[in-house]
Specification:
Elements (H helix, E strand, L loop, with lengths): L1 E5 L20 E5 L8 H12 L29
Antiparallel strand pairs: 1-2
Organism: Croceibacterium selenioxidans
Protein name: DUF1801 domain-containing protein
């Protein structure tokens, strides 16, 4: 399962009711299958979220992907 989070997701139009969460800012969608990304309602939400980005994204700029790991136990930062 994968979740796609939308910052300012509470401001997005969601007529299909795909967005989950009750916070004042963040909403998310849970995906069970990669094919769910191709849903037109999901593409519409992504497009609407991109319109809210400040400053606007430059499509000609080099992009980068950052993947962060969540560890079950954090290692100590200083020697004991």
């Amino acid at each position: 399962m994968v979740s796609l989070f939308f910052f300012k997701g509470a401001l997005l139009p969601d007529p299909a009711g795909l967005l989950r969460g009750g916070g004042t800012i963040i909403r998310h969608i849970r995906f069970q299958d990669i094919r769910e990304f191709e849903n037109p309602e999901v593409e519409s939400l992504i497009s609407a979220a991109l319109e809210l980005v400040e400053p606007p994204l430059d499509p000609s700029a080099d992009g980068r992907l950052v993947i962060k790991s969540v560890s079950a136990r954090q290692r100590p930062r200083r020697p004991a």
